[in-house]
Design a protein that fits this description.
Blueprint lengths: L14 H10 L5 E3 L3 H10 L5 E5 L19 E5 L2 H15 L17 H20 L4
Parallel strand pairs: 1-2, 2-3
Helix pairs in contact: 1-2, 3-4
Length: 137
């Protein structure tokens, strides 16, 4: 078995050419391990070579597959739904440390999903603060 590695060196604009090169080489499968961006680029490059992705987004919402139950096409993979889990993590933290009054979040400002994650966590934090004032949480 031969494994062909391709790196964009943090230059996303290089990904289409790298994916096209893998398609020209007629690889048996493409592993798109760089999240939704690499999976979308691989999907645009081929509709016949199987693509396995690792993703932190909802693959249906971002257009990788038509459904989770039946991805169809040539894509399949694993999604961690990290953005959607931010409020749930806060809820679990609240259960473990119910009297906590301060929360810190360390985020990557260059990640395109940081704003959405931050917004979701702030909304959950506001809800917890309001429920505490009402005596229900």
């Amino acid at each position: 078995m031969a494994i062909e590695f391709r790196y964009a060196d943090s230059q996303i604009d290089r990904l289409p050419a790298l994916a096209a090169d893998l398609v020209r080489r007629q690889v048996s499968v493409i592993f798109a391990g760089g999240g939704g961006v690499t999976a979308r680029v691989a999907k645009a490059a081929t509709s016949t070579i199987p693509i396995v992705f690792v993703n932190g987004e909802d693959p249906v919402k971002v257009g990788l597959v038509p459904s989770l139950a039946r991805p169809g096409g040539n894509l399949t993979g694993v999604s961690f739904f990290t953005i959607e889990l931010g409020p749930k993590r806060l809820e679990l933290l609240h259960e473990v440390i119910p009297n906590a009054t301060r929360l810190a979040a360390l985020v990557n400002p260059t990640n395109p999903y940081t704003e959405i994650l931050s917004r979701n966590v702030l909304a959950a934090a506001s809800w917890f603060a309001a429920s505490r004032k009402l005596g229900s949480g």
